[in-house]
Amino acid sequence: DAGLQIIRVVRTELKLVNLRIVLRTGQPGQAPEMDAISSFDINDYKTKNELTRNKLFTTLTAALRSYDQLKRLDASRLGLEKIIAASNEFITKPGLKSFAEGVITQIAGLLGVTPEGLVCASRIPSNSPEHAAEQLKVIAAAGKYCHFIDQDLNRISAPEISAALTTSLTEHRSQWGSNNVTLYFESREGHKYAAFIDSSKAIAAVDQHLLEVFCTNIALCANNIELVSALREQAFFDRLVRLPNRVAMLRELDNALGGPDCGHQGLAIIDVDQFSSINDIFGHHYGDSLLRAIAERLRAFFPHCFIARVAGDVFGILGRRESLTPEAIHRVFAAPFSIDRVEHPLSTSIGVVHLGDVQGDGSDGI
User: Fold this and answer.
1) What are the residue ranges in the chain where pLDDT is below 50?
2) Cβ proximity of 277 and 290 under 8 Å
3) Could you give the CA distance from residue 303 to residue 328 in angstroms, rounded to a whole number?
4) Separate counts of helices (H) and strands (E) for the chain
5) How far is CA 296 from CA 302, 328, 339, in A?
6) pTM for the whole structure
């Protein structure tokens, strides 16, 4: 029973579950054929006197095909595992990349090719052809295309890939080439995705249909990504002034307080004087326009700082201590703000703290 013992070692100790095994025996009575086939993961079991050329060819061909199918199933499972794992990480940018990597692996597994592909997204739908290419960005890539990650599609050094992906994303269709496939899928919000996969052979009709169905399912997953991204924006972003909000500032402060550069960082808090009176006299529309103008000027004066709206009429600036002086902040408000053709001067109350002097977390700084 040496052959059967080898099988036990291969399966249970070495864990080679995909390896295909063909057994030939000179003593069939020691292990009857039906018992051996039923009890062991083997492809074929015959006596040695049945080892003819034709039967050997048939047996090995069937075993090779079985091995190929098992490898494809493994690749598909790996892709599904990545997509499932990514569903728990969609709040973060790496979650989107992990999802895209799973898409690449899954498609490659379905085609039986090495996952040498990339996924691109048009994050902001546009009807302007001259600016469409600027919105297309590589969000994941595998193998020899890894260096394309986070690059604009029109700047990657692979004209064939760039052209194929641009065509799919602008014409809203998949493409089937002689040695590659470019798949297109779209979310309900109009965000477009395309995946380019190298293939050494043409894609069979049955595989084309399968991939089209797959893209439909992936588009539903993309909707989930965008939903969570929108929730994340609501949690950390102030839509009125297009700045991070108090929660985002607290998170940024905690990171800065725990970082090596803490002693060189400062936090400035700016409170607009008499803002409630401005709202009462001129109306909320005027007040909102004034807040937006303040936010825009703060961004212009402190381009390398983290700026947030931390309360109704209060802004926070996190940056280098030498940049956040009261004099520098007063210069922001030296000129009046023009709102509805009315010049409106503002005064502010300013507080500045050095992070090296803060004991505790971000909430203590604010």
Assistant:
1) 90-93, 123-124, 126-134
2) no
3) 13
4) 12, 15
5) 10, 16, 13
6) 0.48
